[in-house]
């Protein structure tokens, strides 16, 4: 498994934030936490590469949002927020080395954080960043590779994957309070405790579950299900509404 990451921008303190009155972002601490994040992915078995092409973009570290990397193609996103629209071009050369490139264009918008892959199914969040045209455009691209696309409303979170990610057995770890109708009924949901609302975002490296530290009850539940869990402190990224998956593009 490969993990493509992007170093935090020296301008990260100017990044987008849902709560601008939150604690200030410490860019130097973010750099240290990012190094630990890369070590966590490596412990889980990933070969980790870091890009530095987008350092002038404050949100560059959240590389997951720039593209959707499937086995057959890499789809460059038409990012939902204008302040991030320059990022996919910086990531493109690295993706071009590993996949055929497809792209989604305005007025369609889509962020990679809204795309959850479970086998040959893609659940795609309709969020503040991804619109119906973005879901349609992705469906048109991936249909020929045999993927089914299903839209899920995300009324309570920045992206679908802030509210819901998959466990290694295909169950969904989710914060139901942030999800609307639309999660297909056949998925079994493992709800996170109400006092750990940010705990539903985990990244899978093989069968290892990688997560942000600080969610002890969710960690216990994941271990009780029999999964190997690795954690690291991602508090500076959480201050900027980012989570575990946001910091990498993972692919085989
Ligand atoms: C943003 O608002 O775009 C960034 N500050 C955070 C992006 C987090 N990405 C994700 O949830 N996939």
Describe this structure as you would to a colleague.
It contains 6 helices and 15 strands. The chain is globular, with a radius of gyration of 17 Å. The strands form 5 sheets. The protein has a 3-stranded mixed beta sheet with strand order 2-1-15, covered by helices on one side. The protein has a 3-stranded mixed beta sheet with strand order 3-4-5, covered by helices on one side. The mean pLDDT is 97. The chain is an alpha/beta fold and 252 residues long. It binds citrulline.
Q: Which descriptor suits the 3D outline?
A: globular
Mean of all residue-level pLDDT scores: 97
What binds here, in terms of ligands, is: citrulline
- What fraction strand? 15-25%
Which percent range fits the helix content? 10-25%
Tell me the span between the first and last alpha carbons: 4 Å
Structural class, from secondary structure content?
A: alpha/beta
Low-confidence stretches: none
Count of helices? 6
How many individual β-strands? 15
Describe the largest sheet: 3 strands, mixed
Q: Strands of the largest sheet, in order across it?
A: 2-1-15
Order of helices and strands: EHEEEHEEEHEHEEEEEHEHE
